[in-house]
Amino acid sequence: MSEIKAGIIGTGGISVCHLEGYNAIPDVKVVACCDIDFEKAKKYAEKYSIPNVYADCKEMMEKEELDVVSVTTWNAAHKECTITALKGGANVICEKPMAMNATEAEEMMKTAEECGKLLQIGFVRRFGKDAEIFKEFSDDGVLGDIYYAKATYLRRSGCPGGWFGNKAISGGGPLIDLGVHVIDLSRYLAGNPKPVSVSGVTYSNLGKNRALGAEVAWDMENKKRDEEIYNVEDFVSAMVRFENGFTLSVEASFNLNCKSDSGEIQLFGTKGGAALSPKLEIYTDVAGRFVNIQPAVDVGFSMDAFNDEMRGFVDAAMRGKPCRATAEDGVMLMKIIDGIYRSAETGREVIL
Ligand SMILES: NC(=O)c1ccc[n+]([C@@H]2O[C@H](COP(=O)([O-])OP(=O)(O)OC[C@H]3O[C@@H](n4cnc5c(N)ncnc54)[C@H](O)[C@@H]3O)[C@@H](O)[C@H]2O)c1
Asked: How many Cβ atoms sit within 10 Å of the Cβ of residue 195?
C-alpha cells in the first residue's frame, strides 16, 4: 500500500502522543500540522520534521491530501476542526471529550456518516492492556453478568490550568476531563450498554484558590496559571443507570480534601469482580474459597496504549478493521455528561 498521509490539528501536549503513534506505524507519515498559534506550530513542525505547517485547518485541508487527521485542540474547537477535516476528505481521530455537548457530538457523527469517513474518539483507556485482559476474562465468563461498577478519578489538587478551568473552552471541569475516561472505560468493559438515566451532584467549593495556589504537576508552558479564568466544578459524584440493569457510580475531582490522588475502576459480576488500576485483579471463588487472581505478567495502563490507539485508528480507517471507540460511543458519553450537569443543576434525576 502507498504511504498513508497524516495531519495534526492542535500542536499542544497530547498531540505528541498522536504524532509518536503515527511515527511508530511504518507506512504512515505525518506530512502537515496546524495550530492557531502559528509560532507554536512552526516550532513543532521543525522539532518533529513535519514538512508543511499551517495556522488554519481549513487551509491545511484544502492544500494537503490527508488520509488521517488527529484533532488535538482544546475542547471548544473539536467540533469545527473535526467537521473541517472530515469534509476535507480525511478520517479523523478526535480527542476526548468528543465535544462540548451531545448536540455538537451528534453533528460530528452525522458529518462523518455523510462524508463516508471514520470518526474515532480518543478513548485511550479502551486500548490499555488492563482493559484488553479484563475483556478476555469477562468474555470467558469468569465474572458472570456484570451489574455494577464503581469508578473514581480523584485529584487532591490537579486542575491542569489554563483553558481546562475555563468552561467556555473546556465545557466543564473534572467530569468532562477526567470522568469521561472512567465512565467510558466502565461502559466499554460492561459491554457498551445504552445509558438511560443519570443523577449527579457537582461542587465548586475549592477550585479557584486551590488551582491557582497549589504546587501541581500540570503547570505546562502553555497553561499560564496566573491569568486563568476558573469557573468549572471541582468535584462530581454521579450515578448512571443503563438499559440492561447495569449501574455505574462515578466520582472525579480537580480539587478535593482527600488523602491523595487516586483512581480505580471496580466492576462486580454474578460470578466474580475485578479492579483495574493500578493493576488488574480478579475476585472470585475456586473450590469453595475466595481467591484474588492477578495475571502473572504485571498488567496496568501504560502510555503504550496511545501507540495501540493510533495503530487501531489507522487500521480501522485504512485497512477495514473494526473501530474500538466509535463516534456513537462518543455521543453516548456526551449524553451522559450533559445529563449529569443538568441533574446537578436541577437537583433531579435526568432521563436520557
Ligand atoms: N487522551 C488523554 O489522555 C488526554 C490527555 C490530555 C489531553 N487530552 C485532550 O486533548 C485535547 C488537547 O489537550 P492538550 O493538553 O494537548 O491541550 P493544549 O492546550 O496543550 O493544546 C491544545 C492546542 O490546540 C490549539 N488550538 C485551539 N484551537 C485550535 C484550532 N481551531 N485550530 C488549530 N489549533 C487549535 C491551541 O492553540 C493549543 O496549542 C483536549 O481535548 C484534552 O481533553 C486527552
From this structure: 19
pTM above 0.90, yes or no: yes
Total domain count for the chain?
A: 2
State the pLDDT at residue 17: 97
Return the CA Rg of the chain.
20
Residue 51 CB burial class (10 angstroms; 0-12, 13-18, ≥19) = exposed
* CA–CA distance, 279 with 236 (Å, rounded to integer): 24
Pocket test for ligand 1, best of 9, 18, 72, 74 (most atoms within 8 A of CB): 74
Distances (CA, A) of 275 to 83, 129, 270, 284, 300: 37, 13, 15, 12, 10
**Same domain, residue pair 254 and 199:** yes
- Helix (H) / strand (E) containing 188: helix 180-189
Are 99 and 184 members of one domain?
no
Kindly report, residue by residue over 212-238, the tens digit of the pLDDT. Answer: 545 554 544 444 545 578 899 999 999
CB of residue 88 inside a 6 A radius of ligand 1:
no
Tell how far the Cα of 202 is from the centroid of ligand 1, in angstroms: 24
Ligand 1: residue whose CA is nearest its atom 19: 12
> Per the domain annotation, does 112 fall within a domain?
yes
Q: Is the CB of 36 under 6 A from ligand 1?
A: yes
Domain co-membership, 297 together with 312? no
Of all protein residues, the one whose alpha carbon is nearest to atom 3 of ligand 1 is 124
| Residue among 95, 126, 308 whose CB has most ligand 1 atoms within 8 A, to mutate | 95
Among protein residues, the one with the nearest Cα to ligand 1's atom 25 is 10
CA of 273 to the centre of ligand 1 (A): 35
pLDDT digits (tens, 9 = 90+) for 35-93: 999 999 999 999 999 999 999 999 999 999 999 999 999 999 999 999 999 999 999 99
Which CATH number belongs to the domain containing residue 49 in this structure?
3.40.50.720
- Does one domain contain both 288 and 165? yes
